[in-house]
Design a protein that fits this description.
globular, about 30% strand, Aminopeptidase, about 25% helix, single chain, alpha+beta
Amino acid sequence: MAMLHWVWARFDDLGVRALYDALQLRGRVFSIEQQAVYLDTDGADVASWHLLGRDAAGTLQAYLRLVDPGVKYAEPSIGRVITAPEVRGQGLGRLLMAEGLAGAARWWPGQGVRISAQSRLRRFYEEFGFVAVGADYLEDGIPHVEMLRPEAR
């Protein structure tokens, strides 16, 4: 399994290079690979923590954003969860989510975490204690389900 160096940053502290790397990876995965046509820069980035996982060469291989409570949902929200296609299958997605949930517990102890998950990843998120709280729906042409992790662990 590849080892990553994790860095948390608020939007204003990301720096131009880190912001570029994050948006490039998000574009590669969401726009090109998944062919989802939507405005990725939805305004929530400025009210979020950003988690970047870089390999030994400094290449961004994993990313998520942790959105402040009250922006998307009453609870903090994890989204834009991605690993680079070339490193998938190495368990980095699980490490990324574990670090993301640790951040949520650090900044908002005792609060639940809500997500809008791609339906095909429901079991993945259930491994972290998330439960579906509604029926599947289409978001940007991709089936999603709202999920809640009742309280940070």
